[in-house]
Structure formats: C-alpha cells, structure tokens
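Need tokens for this chain, all 200 residues.
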Amino acid sequence: MITEHIHHALAQVRELQRQVLERQRFRGYSGEAKAASGTAALLIAVVLGSGRLPATFPVHLVGWGVLFVFALLTNYGAVMYWFLNDPHVKRDVRKLKPLLDVVPPLIVGAVLSGAVLLRGEYHYLFGIWMCLFGLANLATRHVLPKAIALVGLFYLCAGALCGLWPGLEFTNPWPMGLAFFVGEWTSGLILHFDQRRAIP
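Here are the structure tokens for all 200 residues:
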C-alpha cells in the first residue's frame, strides 16, 4: 500500500514537471519558416554553383546576404505573427524573452565576420556562420524541444570542419548550402512535430 502511494506521488511529480516545462516552452519559432530558409539556402547554392554567375567574392557575398535577409524576415516574421495572433500569448512581451538567448551568438558572429572581412580571410566565413547557428540552437535548447541541441551540435561540427578544411574557398557554395539545408530542415521538422503534439 505504501509502495502504491509512492508510485502515485512520483507520477504526480512527473506530471507537474511536464506541465511546468510545457509552460516554459517557446512556441514562437515556426518549423515551416525554418524549412523555407533551408530550402532557400540550397537554392542559393544551386544558383551560385551553376556557373552562370561570376565565381567572385562580391557575387557570393551578395547571394548569402540575400539568404540572410530572407531567413531573417521569414523566421522573425513568423515569430511576430505568433506573438500578435496566438490567444495564449496575449501580446505579453515577456513571452519573447527566449529571443534574447540568441543575441550573444549573433553579436559574436557579426564581430568575427567583420574581422575576417577586414582582413580578407573570406574562407573562414562559412565556419563562423555555422558555429553561430550552432551556438544559437544550443542557447535555446531549454525552451525548445531537446532535439534542437543535436542540430546545434551538427552546426558546430560542420562549422569546425569548414574552418579547418584546407583549401575551402568562399566561392564554393556547396558546404554552406548543404549544411544549412540539412540543419534548417531538421530543426524545422523537430519544431513542426513538437507543435503538432502540443495541439490538444
């Protein structure tokens, strides 16, 4: 009888813990927006690698800049749509607090990108950008599904590989396009299925 009470109490504690974690879960990121960004990364790589554009640093930088703007507008546009329209959020600005978790990696990524651009070391950019995404994913692992941490580790490994790979050129779009396609689609699927589970 005592054992039965203990099992019942443990079950209640687990359910309470699940509810607390569920309340802390950030639902503003869109799996579909992430998948769209991943698809755009692959398309940019196809265009840049097609041979129809000059294989120069400025052309490739503009290409990846277009991807950055598209991903920023798509992902944060989805967050703002969620913030303004989700009845559970009630436009409470405190619900956007998890967005602050990605600010330090963004700042470090911007500073390092600026440093290598000033020195003309363009071949380090892919590694920096991938590591930036890896750190951003790891920074949000407490308010997103746990599997997001695996995406973060994938980006960190891809970034380290790109940073250490001898002879990797910025004008080779495939490492960037493929890594971001895989990473964003994976995180998009994780978020999509997590959102579906959350719907009563």
